[in-house]
Amino acid sequence: QVQLVESGGGLVQPGGSLRLSCAASGFSFSSYFMSWVRQAPGKGLEWVSGIDSGDASYYVDSVKGRFTISGDNAKNTLYLQMNSLKPEDTAVYYCTKSLWDWGQGTQVTVSS
How many CB atoms lie within 10 A of CB 39? Predict the structure, then answer.
């Protein structure tokens, strides 16, 4: 049974940093394309970043140079390091396996 559990969200001031984690179980995440997707208040889903089975990483233009996606195969955990956060990064962040299985999301709020 696939399970994805996100953590690490919270309230941070503009310019601050957060690291999101996604603990995966029921499958080996390194064999799949894993993504982070976010939903800002009142808006639709936005794909943010992804990493493939060859460890190549991909980002939406708005987060390039600020966010870094990575994985720990031993812990079967996906991460999203978010630096230089902006108010427009405020959203619920979801971890997804192949955009098919989804976690419950973790709230990130960037505000002074």
Answer: 14
- The answer to whether residues 95 and 106 touch, using CB atoms and an 8 Å cutoff, is no
* Rounded CA separation 97/37 (Å): 11
- CB of 37 closer than 8 Å to CB of 48: yes
Q: Hey, is 87 helix, strand or coil?
A: helix
Residue pair 83/89 in contact by the 8 Å Cβ criterion: no
pLDDT of residue 112: 95
pLDDT of residue 36: 98
pLDDT band at 37 (very low <50, low <70, confident <90, very high): very high
* C-alpha distance from residue 28 to each of 47, 53, 91, 102 (Å): 22, 10, 27, 15
In this predicted structure, what is the pLDDT of residue 30? 84
Q: State in Å, rounded, how far the first CA of the chain is from the last one.
A: 40
**DSSP code for 33:** -
